[in-house]
Amino acid sequence: MVELLSRWFVKNHEQIENPRVRASYGTMVSVVGIVLNLLLSGAKIAVGALFASLSILADGVNNLSDAGSQLISLLSFRIAAKPADREHPFGHARIEYVASMIVSFLILLVGAELLKESIRKIITPEPPEASWISVAVLGGAILVKLWLAHLNRKIGKKIDSSVMRATAADSLSDVLSTGAVLIATLVSLLFPSLGWNLDAYIGVAVSLFILYSGFKIFLETKNAILGEAPSEEVVKTIESVVSEFPDALGIHDLVVHNYGPGHIIAALHIEVDGKKDVFDSHDMIDLIEHKLRNEHGIEATIHMDPILRDEETLALRKEVENAIKGISPDLRIHDFRLVKGPTHSNLIFDVAVPFEIKASDSELKDQISSAISTINPTYFAVIQVDRV
To answer: Which structural domains are found in the chain, ordered by start?
Structure first.
C-alpha cells in the first residue's frame, strides 16, 4: 500500500535526494495523516460525548492535535524544499527540526490537559456509559494508527525525515493509549458493577504515556537544533574515503554540521608528506572532496597539513606518544613537528583530548611538558589542545 501510494502521488519517487521529491513525499504522508486523524478525532469525540467517556473524548482530542501536527509537517516540507538564498545560504532543511519541536510541544500540551482532567475525574467520579459502539470505534482507530505508524516510519527512513520519525513514534504511542482506553471500555461492559472509575485511571496512564512520548521527541529534536556530535556512520564514511588514498597519512580536527537531511557540511585536516610535490597533494585533496560530495552528499572543506617523515622525527613522535599514554590512553597527537635550536628543540604538536577528561587545558599541558622533559630536558613542548 505504501509503495502504491508513492507511485501514484510522488513523481520520480525513487529520486529521494531531490528536494522536490522529498517535499512530495512529505505532502503525501501529511495529507493522508491529516485526513485520517480528523476522521478518527470526529468519531471519538462524538462517541466520548455521547457516552460521557473522558478517556475516549481525550483520545479524540489527541487525534485532533495529531492532525495539527501533520499540518505543521506539511508546511515544514514545503519550506525545507526551498533553495538556498542570501539569508539562508545553507538552505532551509533545518525547518524540519523546528517542526518536530512544535510537534513535541503539542503532544506535551495534550498530555498535560488529559492528566489534569483525569485526576479531576478520580477526585469527583463520573462513571461513563459503556457501549459496543465505543469498542468498534476504538478497535478501528488502533488499526488506522498502526498503519499510519508504518507509513511514517517507512517513508521517514527512506527520505531521512526527523518529522516523520517523530510522527511514527507519536502514532505508536496513540496505539498504546487507545488500547488502554479500549481495555477500560471492555472492562466496563463486561463488569458493569465495578466499584471504581477505571476510565479516569486509564486516562491518567494514557496521559503519562503521551507526556513521555512528547518529552522524548523534544530531547531528540533539541540535540539536532543545538548541534550534536556527528553520527558514527558519517565519521566512518569520511574516514573510509580518506583511507582509499595512501598519501593521506592521517585525519584530525573533523567538524560536521548537519543542516538537515541531505545537507551535511564537514571540515577536516589531512596530514600529507611535506617532501612530496604540493601540487600532487593538492590534487589528492580535490579528489577526496569530489568523492565525498558526489558519492556521499557531504560537502567537505579539507585543510592540508604537511608533516616530515624522516626517521628522527618519526622515532621522536613515537616516544612522545608513549609518554602521553602514561597520562591517559585516550590522548592522541597530530601535526607533530621538530624544530631544532642550539640550546633546545621545540616539539610542536596538537593533542586531541576527549571531553570526558576533566583536567583543564593548562593542567594537561603541564603534565605533557613534564612527561616530555623526562625524554630529554632540552625538549620544549609547544602544545595546542583540541577538545573532541
So the answer is: 2-226 (1.20.1510.10), 232-307 (3.30.70.1350), 311-387 (3.30.70.1350)
